[in-house]
Amino acid sequence: MIKDTRARIVDAAMELFWLKGYNSTSIADILSRSQVNSGSLYHFFPGKQDVLLAVLDAYRDGIGEALLKPAWAGIDDPLERVFALLRLYRGLIIDTECEYGCPIGSLALELHEADPIVRTKLAENFTGWVNAVKACLDSAASRFAPGTDTQALAEFVLTVMEGAVMQARTYRDVAFFDRAIAQLAAHFDNLKVKETVV
Amino acid sequence: MIKDTRARIVDAAMELFWLKGYNSTSIADILSRSQVNSGSLYHFFPGKQDVLLAVLDAYRDGIGEALLKPAWAGIDDPLERVFALLRLYRGLIIDTECEYGCPIGSLALELHEADPIVRTKLAENFTGWVNAVKACLDSAASRFAPGTDTQALAEFVLTVMEGAVMQARTYRDVAFFDRAIAQLAAHFDNLKVKETVV
DNA sequence: GTCTATAAAAGGATAGAC
DNA sequence: GTCTATCCTTTTATAGAC
Fold first, then answer.
1. Distance (Å, rounded) from C-alpha B76 to C-alpha A123?
2. Distance A42 CA to C15 C1' (A)
3. B150-171 and B103-110 helices cross at what angle (nearest 10)?
4. pLDDT: is A128 or B113 the higher one?
5. What is the residue-averaged pLDDT of chain A?
6. Where in the sequence of chain A do the CATH 1.10.10.60 domains occur?
7. Residue B4 — pLDDT band, cuts 50, 70, 90?
8. Is B152 near chain A, with CB under 8 Å?
9. From CA A103, how far away is CA A108, in angstroms rounded?
10. CA nearest to A106 within chain B
11. Is the Cβ pair B176, A155 closer than 8 Å?
12. Alpha helix ranges (H) inside chain B
């Protein structure tokens, strides 16, 4: 099944924005990769920024199928799922020889004078990711000390992932990612209720 | 005292790259802000990327005077200094109405097909920052549990700062930064030796 | 070292036939 | 909805006089 023109444009733009960034991706790049002509692109989108908005919608709507489902295949324990998600990012770092950057995080820092609607959609993507992690934490609520703020902790998982990916990419060394995740794991352990060893 | 031409170019580029990003800053922007003519810029620099390299050198060489000195004025305790540095970033977020982005982190994610020399200089900047934090942690070594990895912990401080700045900027809300730093502080507390209350 | 003018290319977007 | 051709602006970089 051949995808329709609009979908081909969004797919191509999604990949190019990730590989090269938004400003370094030209309309010509998108046309070339999607095998679409200029007139068709401008038939579907008023301009380049609108392609970006469609890409951000695609990321937001695809978080379940494209990110969480593969990360969580065969894993049921909610806390293991949090670290399985982080392991998926580790795999992306390895697969890209440490050039991987989170597409949302990279766009969030690249776009300086972003239209409010762009910024809002970036935030929506972060929120979707954090909500998925928070749901895991809430499912494991009994294992955390009473009063643990799962919202703040879920945000912190994103914080650490983004900062860790940034350093692994800059140093081209996954060990920076691993050390950060190890620190996060230690923090998690300290928030858990102390179990009596059987 | 009027700065020489080269310094004016570097100053202007440093500010513009921070405000708009590298790709969105044109040579014309730099010329306009520095009040320099095209011929002069190309007399000092072969091209735009070489201006970037000079900017990255300036950040690296200025970390003490421009960042640590103001952050640490009047603060002697090494652990307090770590969080004072983070408070400085909080001030930058507030002062910019939550548009602040770490100039090094933003460039690290914006530049996708970066020349190795650019990437190396970005890493040098991270290393300088982490080394300053690590020196604080080592000065307070007696207050951490034996065997605490101060290198990994210093890297983690950078990880959290970068991830926290990214979210505060994307949501335009400093509370995201504050919550991340609170989590980091809790992690620090858990690494400390348990003091007997007097 | 500095100045103006300009080359040469790339980029976003549009026109109008089909 | 799609096609080709093209306009117009921006951008990096250079030329050559002073």
1. 38
2. 12
3. 80
4. A128
5. 97
6. 2-60
7. very high
8. yes
9. 9
10. B109
11. yes
12. 5-20, 27-34, 38-44, 48-62, 69-72, 78-95, 103-110, 116-139, 150-171, 174-191
- How many angstroms separate the CA of A96 from the C1' of D9? 36
Helix (H, G, I), strand (E, B) or coil at A4: coil
CATH architecture classification, B62-191: Orthogonal Bundle (1.10)
Q: pLDDT of A100-157, one tens digit each?
A: 999 999 999 999 988 999 999 999 999 999 999 999 999 999 999 999 999 999 999 9
pLDDT tier at A196 (50, 70, 90 boundaries)?
A: low
For chain B, give every residue range classified as CATH 1.10.357.10.
Answer: 62-191
Is A168 within 8 Å of chain B by CB? no
B167 with B93: CB under 8 angstroms? Answer: no
Backbone angles phi, psi at A63, to 5 degrees: -60, -40
**According to the model, what pLDDT value does residue A151 have?**
98
Nucleotide with minimal C1' distance from the CA of B44 is: C1
For residue A116, the model assigns a pLDDT of 97
- Nucleic chain D contacts, protein chain B, residues 99-158, CB cut-off 7 A: none
Query: Mapping DSSP to helix (H, G, I), strand (E, B) and coil, where does residue A144 land?
Result: strand
**What class, spelled out in words, does domain A2-60 have in CATH?**
mainly alpha
Q: Which residues of A fall within a CB distance of 8 Å from B110? A: 21, 23, 106, 109-110
Closest CA to B108 of B33, B17, B39: B17
DSSP state of B141: G
Decide if A119 touches B, using CB distance below 8 A: yes
Residue A23 in tokens: 């400003």
Task: Round to whole Å and give the CA distance between B8 and B44.
Answer: 12
The stretch B76-93 carries a mean pLDDT of 98
Cβ-based neighbours of A134, under 8 Å, separated by 6 or more: A150, A151, A153, A154
